[in-house]
């Protein structure tokens, strides 16, 4: 397990590489982000953005999505994996926001996790992006980086890694570091062909 000093070195480096890192999912309304985050499971943000552009243009309100035949939603997202389940989740998310939350996306993490397809990580993403509430949700990129850099080990669950990172990083930096670590994993320390020769963290990397 690394200490706070080493974590600061990591944070400084990813900050130098990606000073303006931010969420890459496109959305205009709060509930659109919730849907996009749910759709992003096991696929890329780029693929999600390609389908949500049409989806949200054709069904521009919660009510329009609520009343849309599920087959119409499936047709617009079928290039994504698990599209039938995800279409059902869209209908479930929209229905619950309308009927339970009076048309407003909740900010409470436990309430967000009652929406279909929204787990701890997705709820954390929604909270930091929509409500600017400090959190540090862990995705596959952050899991990979954490294992390679000794922040975590292969036995750790995502929630374990989240807790470890939160102990190492000041709360005021959680949101920024979350985005920067994702960008680092997506564009630098990738699963395949990471840029190890260029990396300034090689001396503390297990990979």
Shape type: elongated
Write the H/E string, N to C.
HHHHHHHHHHH
Mean pLDDT: 96
Number of helices: 11
Strand fraction equals under 5%
Straight-line distance between termini = 15 Å
The radius of gyration computed from the alpha-carbon positions, rounded to a whole number of angstroms, is: 18 Å
Which percent bin holds the helix content? 55-70%
* Structural class by SSE content: mainly alpha
- Low-confidence segments, ≥5 residues, pLDDT <50? none
DSSP summary, beta strand count? 0
Question: Main sheet, how many strands, which sense, barrel?
Answer: none
List keywords for this structure.
single chain; 207 residues; 57% helix
In short:
The protein is an all-alpha fold and 207 residues long. The chain has helices spanning 4-17, 30-39, 45-58, 62-67, 70-77, 83-99, 109-112, 120-130, 140-148, 158-168, 174-187.
